Amino acid sequence: MTRHTRILMSVIYSAFVVYLFVPLALMVMMGFKDSKFIGFPIRGWTTEWYAGVFQDSEVLGVFAYSMTIAVSSTLLSLVIGVWVATFLGPNKFRGKLIVFALTCLPAVIPGIISAISLRIFARFLSIEPGMFAIILGHTVHNVPFVALVVMARLATLPKSHIEAAQDLGADKMVAFFRITLPYLLPALIGAGIFCMLLSFDDFVRAFFLGGYQPTLPVLIFAMLRTGMSPEINAISTVVLILTAVLGLWAERSMRRMNKGA
Predict the structure, then answer these.
(1) Which terminus of the chain has fewer CB atoms gathered within 10 Å of its CB, N or C?
(2) CATH no. for residue 172?
(3) Taking Cα atoms as reference points, which of 186, 144, 179, 146 lies closest to residue 164?
C-alpha cells in the first residue's frame, strides 16, 4: 500500500467516524440543553431532562413494555432458531436449499411489506393487535438471524465430540444438551443480544401490530409529531448507553467463552 493510498484511506475512515459519531454526540449534548427547543446556541446546561426520564411513569412503563416484548420474542427466536439450525446444519435432504431460503426470507423482506403481511396474518388468526401480535412479528423477523449465527457456529463443532458422547451411551437428546448446546452458547448470546436490540428498536412492525399501548420507538415517534424536545434526546441517550453496555457485555462474554473453549 503506497503512502498516498494510506492517506486516502485514513481520510475516508476519519470522515466515516465523524459521520457516525457526531450526530450521536449532538444528540447527547442537546439532552443537557436548558431550553425546550433543540438547536444552537446553547445558553445553559441542565440535567432536568435526564432526571425527568426516570421520573416519568409513562416512559418507564413503555420501556418495561418494550423490554418484555424484546425478551419474549428473543427467547422464542432462540428456541426456534436453534431447532432450525440443528435441522438444516448437519442433515442432507432434497429441498434443503429451498427450506434454507424460506428460513432467511423474513430477514430480506422490506419492513413495511413484512409488517403489513403480519398484520393480515394476525387478523386471519383472530389475534388482536397488542403485545402478543408484536412478539409474533418480531419472532418471525428474528429467527433467520439466530439460525444463521447458530449454523455458522455448529459448522465448527467437531463430529468426534458427538460420536464420543454416543459411544459412552448418550442418546441424541443427551448429546445435544451436554455437548452441542454448551458449544453453541457464545453464538446464542450474540444472536440473543442482536435479536433483543432488533426487537427493542423496531418501529414498523410495532406500529402495525401494536394496540393502544405503544412501544418506545412508537412513543418517540408520537412525541416527535408535536416537535423536537430535549426530553426525546434524553430518552434516546439513555437507550444508547444501555445498548452500548449490553453490547460490550455480550462481546466480552463471547470472548471469554471462546477462550475457554
Answers:
(1) N
(2) 1.10.3720.10
(3) 179
Give strand pairing partners of 259: none
Residue-wise pLDDT tens digits, 56-115: 888 889 999 999 999 999 999 999 999 988 888 777 777 778 888 888 888 888 889 999
Distance CA 139, CA 135 (A): 6
The C-alpha cell 439466530 sits at 146
Query: How many domains are contained in the chain?
Result: 1
How many CB atoms lie under 10 A from the CB of residue 65?
A: 18
pTM listed for this prediction: 0.85
Per-position DSSP letters for 207-243, written without gaps between them:
HHH--SS--HHHHHHHHHTT---HHHHHHHHHHHHHH
* Domain containing residue 223: 55-258
In the block, which residue shows the cell 429451498?
A: 98
- Read off the pLDDT of residues 141-158 as tens digits, 9 standing for 90 and up: 999 999 999 998 888 877
- CA-wise closest residue to 143 among 200, 208, 83, 69: 83
